[in-house]
Amino acid sequence: MSLSTDMPVRVADVTQVTDLVKRFRFERLDGQPMPFFSGGAHVVVSMNDNGLLRRNPYSLMSSPDDNSGYDISVLRVPNSRGGSIFMHEQVKPGDQLTVSQPVNLFAPDHRGRKHILIAGGIGITPFLAMMDQFSRDNVAFELHYAIRSRTHGAYWQQLLDRYGARRIKIYVDEEKSTLPLATIVENQPLGTHLYVCGPAGMIDGVLLTALQAGWPKENLHSERFLAPPAGLPFQVFLEKSNIHMTVGEHQSILEAAEAHGCDAPYMCRGGACGQCETAVVSSDGMLEHNDIYLSDAEKASGGKVMICVSRFKGQQLVLQL
Amino acid sequence: MLVQGIKSRPEYKGLEIDPHAKRHLFVLEGEGAKALTDQVEAKGKDFLARSEILYLAGGAAPKAYDAVMAALSPDIFWQAPTLQPMLFRLRACLEQARMGTRIYVAGTEGFIGQIMQVVLEYGVDFNSIHTEHRGSTARRVQCVHCKGITDDVTTSPFACTHCGLSLLVRDHYSRRLGAFQGVNIDAEEPGTAPQPEEMFP
């Protein structure tokens, strides 16, 4: 439904960046240019893992100026649901994959007079494209990038070389240097915008520190994609499609619906964008809302569910889908 | 005669001291002074030590709100004789301001609109600016035909002070211009405009 515009692509290049990070370059099979995107955008990559369809969102990290191809970086996550392992172990140059049109849920606010980017680990990827854009537009920015060790951290040396030590600050956990959050948010000029991408705990810490330092919430931006959490299997009836299905332990409702041939709308697949919002017709149990899109009141009312990440405990859940 | 129900009509949600803000910048006009003194009554005087107040008395000068606010001993109290020096001073304040600064604007709609125009240039999101409408409901209106702006419009229709056309005042508002949009009411048959109605006292 949302994806009649998917693009078949060829893997043009695979680069081992660090022990756990690989970079992939995608180019279109028909040789046409890729659609332009803006810094902060992501695509959903569809993988065919032995008949099992996997779809994961990845931030675009190449230059927004470059429409000859897209680059993404993938962190290998050992105990994950398998998408990153598949990318690392199976995908080779020359392979075919499908990527969605670019979607931006983390765009810079161009009214800002200065931009502060805070990245933790693989959270660096959306900022690579953003910085390219800021630098081209001659807009003031600074990056604060926290990594575990210099061997684990991706791209930090290239960033230092390209943008210089005034704009790029690296903090290495192994060397006991940590993000000086309170100092970063203090004394910034009016009209500064702050963006954070990384582990959930870090995002919460940054946002809280900034709010307590008197920043208005309108100037704070974060991107967190949640992987659909695992849980006990449960039964769902899709009313409009007339499908009875079981959502497996490691499956989301959205993935189960897709496996049953239901073309449900989606965009981020991480509980952030609101595209897959689905009305609950009836439920005889507890919805486990795992998204960050619905308000607390909406979650409590139980009338809607974000099927990309949320789960259910009970006998039967009926959805208007 | 007024065209209502247009989404661009601004909402003024009222001043509310933000407890996390490190600094408060008040930009007030006329009766807007009461929006500040009401906050002092409700929240106490603590925030005044971190506050800068820019005040334009305008038509409310006889009420001597300036003396009341100066007596509250804010960090800085400054009074403008007219709007132009007010805008100039505001720019200087914003140039120096840091991210912990919260901006509060109160007064007539025309005043709020022109202050917002300046503040928005500094990359501040308009949702983070506190506004409160006080005093006259007279409007600042742009003629969509000649682009001339007329301040303190109290009737609809009214004669454009620039081109003389009879203009219908609508709720259609331009944040960029800080003005409502007025449209010629008798374009098809000039001279048939209804009598002006006093609508914005």
TrEMBL record, chain A:
Superkingdom to which the source organism belongs: Bacteria
Keywords, comma-separated and alphabetical: 2Fe-2S, Flavoprotein, FMN, Iron, Iron-sulfur, Metal-binding, Oxidoreductase
Spans through the membrane: none
Keyword flag RNA-binding: no
SUPFAM superfamilies: 2Fe-2S ferredoxin-like (SSF54292), Ferredoxin reductase-like, C-terminal NADP-linked domain (SSF52343), Riboflavin synthase domain-like (SSF63380)
Cofactor(s) the protein needs: FMN
Pfam families reported in the protein's UniProt record: DmmA-like_N, Fer2
Domain 2Fe-2S ferredoxin-type: 234-321
Domain FAD-binding FR-type: 4-109
Keyword Metal-binding in annotation: yes
Annotated InterPro entries: 2Fe-2S_ferredoxin-like_sf, 2Fe-2S_ferredoxin-type, 2Fe2S_fd_BS, Beta-grasp_dom_sf, DmmA-like_N, FAD-bd_FR_type, FNR_nucleotide-bd, MRET
Gene3D superfamilies with a match to the protein in the record: 3.10.20.30, Nucleotide-binding domain of ferredoxin-NADP reductase (FNR) module, Translation factors
Gene Ontology MF terms in the entry: 2 iron, 2 sulfur cluster binding; metal ion binding; oxidoreductase activity
UniProt name for this protein: Ferredoxin--NADP(+) reductase
UniProtKB/TrEMBL annotation, chain B:
One MF term in the entry's GO annotations: metal ion binding
All copies of domain Dimethylamine monooxygenase subunit DmmA-like C-terminal, residue ranges: 140-183
Pfam families in UniProt: DmmA-like_C (PF22289), DmmA-like_N (PF22290)
Keyword Transit peptide: no
Domain Dimethylamine monooxygenase subunit DmmA-like N-terminal residues, every copy: 5-129
Oxidoreductase listed as a keyword: yes
Superkingdom: Bacteria
Keywords for the protein's UniProt record, in alphabetical order: 2Fe-2S, Flavoprotein, Iron, Iron-sulfur, Metal-binding, Oxidoreductase
Name of the molecule in the record: Uncharacterized protein
Organism lineage string: Bacteria, Pseudomonadati, Pseudomonadota, Alphaproteobacteria, Hyphomicrobiales
